[in-house]
Design brief:
The chain has about 400 residues and is mainly α. It contains 15 helices and three strands. Helices cover about 45% and strands about 5% of the residues.
Length: about 400
């Protein structure tokens, strides 16, 4: 999504907020003469007012739709609050102003001006659009202030502002890393696998659906992929190379958050499941180099090959998994009322639970945490790691040896 141009902008009407792309500020509120503006000599951006400056900052995130939308929302809220509530431009805000804004986020008042009426989300051009759906939670307030701190720090570094008013904020102790709770125990995971293994296969469509459910669970679990990574990856992302001892090892190249690529070990078990899945679709067991078929293939009928084998959408993937988890929950409930709590856990599971489940099970089996980190793309590899193939081979060997799905005998 490209950043929308900031002009022409509609005038503010009756002191009601307007979306950033329609906002027109009078000279006194434009920031052209803000009290925190840096001298123009040495400025590294050409922006002459606050809206132009934040547009330059937001443009840095134009390649990431979700990040751009989140950052624009927080900047938009602050600018609207500053001009409508304080009568100040962004570039005149002080540390005290931002403390007041932090309190405002927790309870935006007057609500008629700031908060959307009802639960229906309105288009940004609608007359009843508002920048808030309601008060922000403490966590959302913290996130908003972190984003704004990044904005002010960048505008200061760019020579647009003389200083960052949020740099004076009290330094908070880094929160303790939350313990992952949204994952399936080994017993619940076995129930999910048993449920898929028992899916009906009487018709061609049932067989392909059962094969798809098994493959989706396999690649999410063994590869630790995010849902977005699964839907965006093609069959051609699998490739084979020899290690320094001449052993052939398969890998899956995935592009994850921040458009960063990583190599996921494709264990012998994963490659066998890939071949099984492809044979169900009457394809050669091994994908060809550069093959553009999606990692999850369409079913016959309305999803058939006439559709050009479009990749599964995240919404469709969500429905596939929710169906599996619902069937697994029903399987537990059939055992008796004492299984109700466990069934509720399964019924609430989602695609990301499988990623957490995979990570938790790997650590349970003493897979080196560095290998788990790199498999999941939790942090970037150093520049020199591209040359350390022996470390990658050790990661592959450890993953293959200790991280298995174990479907059991063929049906």
């Amino acid at each position: 999504m490209a950043l929308l141009p900031l002009e022409p902008r509609a005038s503010l009407v009756a002191s009601l907020p307007a979306p950033l792309e329609r906002l027109h500020l009078p000279p006194a509120l434009s920031g052209a003469a803000g009290t925190n503006r840096a001298p123009p000599v040495g400025a590294r951006i050409a922006a002459g007012d606050d809206l132009a400056a934040v547009t330059v900052w937001l443009a840095r995130y134009a390649d990431n739709t979700a990040t751009l939308a989140t950052y624009r929302r927080e900047v938009e809220r602050l600018i609207l609050w500053a001009v409508l509530q304080l009568g100040k431009p962004l570039s005149s805000l002080t540390h005290e102003d931002l403390l007041a804004y932090e309190r405002f986020l927790a309870d935006p008042k007057p609500a008629a001006r700031w908060v959307l009426a009802g639960n229906k989300k309105l288009a940004r051009g609608h007359a009843d659009w508002r920048p808030f759906a309601g008060p922000l939670s403490p966590g959302s307030v913290r996130q908003a202030m972190v984003i704004l701190n990044a904005l002010f720090a960048w505008l200061t570094e760019a020579g647009y502002l003389a200083g960052n008013p949020l740099a004076l904020a009290r330094r908070r102790r880094a929160p303790t890393q939350a313990r992952i709770t949204r994952y399936l125990s080994h017993d619940l995971w076995e129930t999910v696998k048993d449920t898929v293994a028992a899916m009906p296969t009487e018709t061609a469509r049932e067989r392909l659906h059962a094969a798809r459910c098994r493959w989706v669970l396999t690649v999410l679990y063994l590869g630790g992929l995010r849902a977005s990574e699964l839907t965006a990856t093609t069959m051609g992302a699998f490739f084979c190379r020899r290690d320094i001892q001449g052993i052939e090892r398969w890998w899956l190249e995935v592009t994850g958050k921040g458009n960063k690529s990583r190599l996921v070990p494709a264990t012998d078990e994963l490659i066998a499941e890939l071949a099984r899945y492809r044979r169900a679709h009457e394809l050669p067991p091994t994908p060809q180099f550069g093959e553009t078929r999606p990692l999850v293939l369409p079913l016959i009928g309305s999803e058939g090959r006439q559709s050009g084998e479009k990749p599964l959408s995240r919404g469709a993937l969500h429905l596939v998994l929710k169906e599996v988890f619902a069937m697994a929950a029903a399987r537990l409930r059939a055992r008796g009322p004492e299984w109700e709590a466990q069934a509720d856990v399964l019924a609430s599971a989602s695609a990301h639970w499988l990623r957490h489940t995979a990570g938790s099970h790997m650590t349970d089996r003493q897979v080196d945490l560095r290998f788990v980190r790199d498999n999941f793309g939790h942090s970037s590899l150093s520049t020199t790691s591209g040359y350390l193939h022996s470390e990658e081979d050790a990661r592959h060997e450890a993953t293959q040896e200790r991280h298995r799905i174990g479907w059991g005998s063929e049906k």
